[in-house]
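Good morning N.,

You mentioned wanting to compare the apo and holo forms, so I went ahead and generated the holo version with 9D3. This is what I fed in:
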Amino acid sequence: MRLDIITIFPKMFSAVLDESIIKRAQLKGKVKIYIHDLRSYTSDKHRKVDDRPFGGGSGMVMNAQPIFDAVKKIKREARARVILLCPQGEKLTQKVAKRLSLCKHLILICGHYEGVDERVGEHLADEEISIGDYVLTGGELPAMVLTDTLVRLLPGVLGDKNSLNFESFEGNLLEYPQYTRPADFRGLKVPDLLLSGDHTKISSWRQKEALKRTKERRPDLLRKIKKGDK
Ligand code: 9D3
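and this is what came out, ligand included:
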């Protein structure tokens, strides 16, 4: 997979993308990630990338020109699906991530300020994605969240743990409680059953706990399972 990310804050990305699993995925050649500074595409002599909204109102709106030109230049090298990260987009779910993880090449556009000129969403982006119903200061963190969830789905990035069966289960039930050593931490004990070595019992305990937690904390997920959603 190739990812091109267009942003006015290119420095924000290295702390996330150059560490841990995403770093390893890049080194293994599973994903190529290119960060593009939007300012280098502006035709404005002061390198401006935003302006006041037509019709008035507070805040600034990002200009269409540098974004259109950046995408055009990137697409000259290879065709790609263009995604605008914005609060009005389709909410990112594991299902959306799986669909996008099948794309060979994505261009991610990070908005900032009060928003992006509507013509970007209407005439340039193939789709718009939000990461949830809360207000951020820009699309950079959402682009990193999307990148993270896509990269871990690419074949060969995680181990064989990453099977589709396992993932569809994981997507709709919360995980069972996990413990590691010591078995007694300052008087707080690990359930005896987990120390028993009886894997049949352990497995059914985990299933029961996962279901119990999901009922308590995320009943919406159980309704989804009943409807056959993934
Ligand atoms: C004035 C109305 N605001 C919309 C709720 C304007 C606005 C707020 C924040 C416009 C852009 C932003 C910056 N956020 C994003 O670009 C963004 C975002 C988000 O704020 N929440 C969840 N997902 C995303 S994806 C991009």
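The pocket of 9D3 is lined by residues 85-87, 111, 114-115, 130-132, 134-139, 142 (CB under 6 Å).

Happy to go through it together on a call whenever suits you.

Best,
F.
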